Request: fold
Amino acid sequence: MTLDEWDAWLGRYAVAPAGRSRTPSPRTVEARRARVARWLTWGAGQSLGPEGLRQYAVALAAQGLSATTQHLYVETVVTFLRWVHARGGLASDPVADVAVPVPAPAPRTPLRPDELRALWAVAKPRDRLLLALLYETGLRVGEALGLRWDDWDARSGALYVRGKGNRPRTLWTSPRLAALLQAWKVRDGRRDAILGVCTRQGVCRALQRLARRAGIRPVHPHLLRHSALTAYSHAAVGLDAVRALAGHASLRTTQVYLHADAGAVAAAIGLANVGQVFD
Reply:
């Protein structure tokens, strides 16, 4: 198959429905394109079988990618090849006998209170808003970037979030976070997005700069989310409320048994008051 033919198949695969005919999100389409394009650039067609994938994995490791990232890239290529074969693009399935091992997750150590206070101490107003928004709510970075001023009800403190798979959930802002939001709205409320013109990479760079200035270990958005959810769990607010707050993919299954509702999430946020570390 020529490179142009591979590109044509990639174009179809990237936008193909996932699961129960669910239309993939723009982020999923972008991720599929990037992962398969990397494989095509590396040398697709050299060997489509297990040995070719092994060589590709070695090349990814040589580039310094983590085990988890290597797994994502190889797994996407395997899925792509099976998808192409199922639609007649390949006479045989070159990865029929391939099982991509799932790497053991690297242990995550939540940020300590002293580390959080160090970040807060060196943060400027916009960075403080970013810290409080990610840490007090446990939002994913994509969810935070997607927030619009219309999503926040300043009177009730409700924050309407569109999560993974476009699943909506409602969180509540603490008085501290509400004050930061109000102050930032006065200063920069002319933009639709609460965080203004900002990207995922921009958030990561901002947190890295803060960590360096604070003299602590590297910080990234998911570490703030992980630290927040750990803090809520340790505050004994109830697993159902923590899962609802987090917007995990298994939320609906969990709620069948635990029946988390909006009131439970609001109570959890108020009871745990995880943001008091910034006081």
Notes: The CA atoms of residues 256 and 276 lie 32 Å apart. The chain is about 60% helix and 5% strand. The longest helix spans residues 67-86.
